[in-house]
Amino acid sequence: MKLLFRYRAYGRENVPREGGFVLASGHSSNFDPWALGYGIFPRRFLRFMTKSELFWPLLSQFITAAGGFKVRRGERDEEAMRTAEQLARDGHVIAVFPEGTRRSKGLRKKRQPEAHTGAARIALAADVPLVPAGLKGTDRLSRLGPLRVAYGEAVPTDDLRDLDLQEAARVATDRLMDRIRVLEESL
Q1: How far is CA 101 from the centre of its chain?
Q2: pTM higher than 0.70, yes or no?
Q3: Nearest Cα to Cα of residue 121 among 157, 164, 165
Q4: Looking at residue 107, what is its pLDDT?
């Protein structure tokens, strides 16, 4: 990664050294989870929601071993949310792409990327930090372009404790997406 893609990670000091947290970034490529996790591995290992369509016999074992767990997209998957919350409480790093899909792919997209509140809901419900990250270069792997990741400071959520979870998650998601954009622009 470092030689071939000239991988660089910035802001590692913003990643909690222990305890669970939610790590959220934009989503451009299927390679994003690897680029996001490489900068903090082996100290931290990512667990991430993976669309259930990818869990077919041979691939499901690989995805599970790599830290993935199922989420049914396009519907409210409470089981996946409970799994993510419990993993975060147990000290795992939960990687989430708030837009729920890659920003661009192929000639036709079924879902357009728009920020969903899942990452913030997990962090708020599990009472763990919500850490933004910016990625650059994962959409240009075939051209061997430079690969960059920037980890930002945790999104402040203490002032949201008095709001109901849905409203608190919306406000936290707005803050998160603003920070992700700033981090991506810094790369």
Answers
A1: 11
A2: yes
A3: 165
A4: 46
The answer to the question of residue 116 being in a domain is yes
Report the Cα 111 to chain-centroid distance in Å: 18
Q: By residue range, what is the domain housing residue 59? A: 8-186
Give residue 145's identity as a one-letter amino acid code: G
What is the number of domains present in the chain? 1
Q: Residue 115 has what pLDDT?
A: 84
Q: Has residue 2 been placed in a domain? A: no
* 36, 85 Cβ separation under 8 angstroms: no
- What is the rounded distance in angstroms from the CA atom of residue 50 to the CA atom of residue 28? 15
| Other beta carbons within 10 Å of 142 | 6
- The mean pLDDT value of the chain amounts to 88
pLDDT in tens, 74-85: 778 899 999 999
CATH code: domain of residue 147: 3.40.1130.10
Examine residue 3 and state whether it is found in any structural domain, yes or no: no
Domain presence at residue 81: yes
